[in-house]
Amino acid sequence: MGNQMVSSAGMLFLYLAGEVTDGSVTCIYKTDSYSHPLDFYEQVSELREDVSDKAELELFCVLGVPEKVDAIEAFVEGSMKERTLEIWKEQKMGEMEEKTDKNHALPDWVEAEFERLIQEYIFQEDKMLFPRKCRMEMEGYDMYCLWGGMNSEDDGHLWLEETAAMWTEAEKPFLFGKQMMIQTFELSDLTGRKVIGAIHGFAEEGWYLLIEGGMKLYLNREIPYLRELIGVRDIGLFTVSEIDRITSNPVYAYGRAYQPQELCEEWHKAFLFTAALAEQVWEEASFVPVYERFLAFLEENISEVWEAKALLEKKMYWSVMIGHIDEIRGYLKGEEEVAVSKDFLLLLNSRYAYLPYLYELMNSMGIKMEEVVANCGLQVFSPEKLRQIIELGENGDSFQKGVQWEAAAEYFISHIKGLKVSGRRINVGVQEIDLSIVNTSLDSNLWEMGAYLLTECKNWADKVGIQVIRGLSYSSNMKGNKTTLLFAANGVTRDGKREILRAAVNQQFILCFTKQELLKVKSGEECYELLIDKWRELKACAEREMMV
Asked: Which domain of life is it from (predicted)?
């Protein structure tokens, strides 16, 4: 393969730890690159530390199409050989020699993190483990597992199959097109969606639940959910979601069907979101090269492609796609078409896992996404300026006080790298929301909060009560956003706090910031830390409440 770049797109990287009792694996601990796409290394390191006194076996696994697994296996094992040789040279010669040229494929960031984890596992401070491996051939994909023992006769292999089987039984991995899929990643798209009803479909379908957004959740299938839409075949009518899917399907213009269609749609929505964030005026001349590079990426890494008959002129299709980008920019300012914009935002709560690949694609085409992120939080934070804005809000009539408090909230938000104020004074249903915020980051903490955040500002002498909290919950549900920031100058009543906790249990998070808390902030880093601390505290309270 020479020094050809290998993309981890479509692959799953997995850490498993098996706890053994009486000679059998009784419990496994796990994390993977779909659950934590932006901080896989940190999550595995943290889990390893947590289970260090429990786990008898640690497995580092990668799943994907055989040729990609070949490349990862060669990269990982080549790196271990190089490191072993370096250690030998240090011991024998007392100095490092210049490294030889590598002949394995170069990694992307996920592969590099995976290799770093293995290096830290095999080459420990007080010992070096003997690397062992296993390669399992599945239906269309391979699973490569590596673990370490004290010698070549270590007992780890006795528990490997049990550990892998327990995970496989729970996650039911399968190849979807060219992309690995697991249950938790597929089902994560359901978070925040309501069940509309139960329907008995055609004979081969059986019963399924109709989920908000028009998706089917089957009750009698091993793989119950793949974002399959209810549509004209089921009810004799085209749904809004079905029309939205059709208008962004390249088969009609290019005569090439990217399969599975549901997966093609997911990636298209993530691509359109990325294009909407880019500070680019999209016209045919600028859009077409980027879009066709995206289609090539899908064919290389994600989709099987079938020849079909083109039905539309490409110019018409490109115009529709550019229109979709403009619509998404509207959603991110607060405008909405409820059925489409809500499904779009809910999808991004999990499919942000695709964004690093799309940011890299944009960068390769000369559209610098790192500048989009860097421009958020770019200005130097001044505690004095924030105090001045807040103090100005203590004078004037109620409207003037409200405007100044909104300015204080915007100043705070604008100094968090990765968050961008995209709209002001947004009407949602019967309620006006003061600020609209879009997440442009590749920050795992911020993406837990979602793609789009609403912000409400209340510069009241009294504490904010339960009615405001219920109104914010309603607005969040209407929009499909996960997190709302409430800047309540003098806090929230006891009943209001209870309502915030109830909403959090239902996966709607309202984070409250007071005047006194803002006055204590001294830097942009502290703005970020205060936001993350608020999120983690509310999330932990909701998790405890659910266990009661």
From this structure: Bacteria
Average pLDDT over the chain, rounded to an integer: 89
CATH for the stretch 376-547: 3.40.1350.10
Q: Cα(440)–Cα(420) distance, rounded to whole angstroms?
A: 7
Q: H or E stretch including 17?
A: strand 12-21
How far does Cα 355 stand from its chain's mean position? 8
Element (H, E) at 509: strand 509-513
CA-closest candidate to residue 216, choices 189, 193, 225: 225
Would you say residue 4 has pLDDT above 80?
no
As beta bridge partners, residue 62 has: 13, 144
Place of tokens 């204080």: 408
Q: Which residues partner with 258 through β-bridges?
A: 305
What is the Cα–Cα distance from 373 to 378, expressed in whole angstroms?
9
Nearest to 109 by CA among 13, 45, 1, 177: 13
Tens-place pLDDT, residues 436-458: 999 999 999 999 999 999 999 99
Beta bridge partners of 428: 431
What is the distance between the terminal CA atoms of the chain, rounded to a whole angstrom?
55
- Contact of 28 with 166, CB cutoff 8 Å: yes
| Cα separations in angstroms, 191 against 94, 203, 263, 310, 459 | 56, 28, 18, 36, 33
Region(s) of the chain under CATH 3.40.1350.10: 376-547
Per the DSSP assignment, residues forming a β-bridge with 404 are none
- pLDDT reported for residue 295: 98
Nearest to 131 by CA among 112, 115, 113, 109: 115
Q: Which two tokens stand for residue 540?
A: 């932990």
CA distance 133 to 123: 16
| 44, two tokens | 């595995």
Query: CA neighbours within 13 Å on the CB side: how many for 277?
Result: 31
The H or E element that residue 88 is part of is helix 66-93
CB atoms within 10 A of CB 207: 12
**Residue type, position 218, single letter:** Y
CA distances in angstroms from 522 to 397, 412, 414, 525, listed in the order given: 29, 11, 14, 8
The 10 Å CB-count burial string (b at 16+, else e) for 337-350 is eebbbbbbbbbbbb
For residue 260, cis peptide bond before it (omega within 30 degrees of 0): yes
Number of Cβ within 10 Å of residue 29's Cβ equals 17
Check: CB of residue 131 under 8 Å from CB of residue 148.
Answer: yes
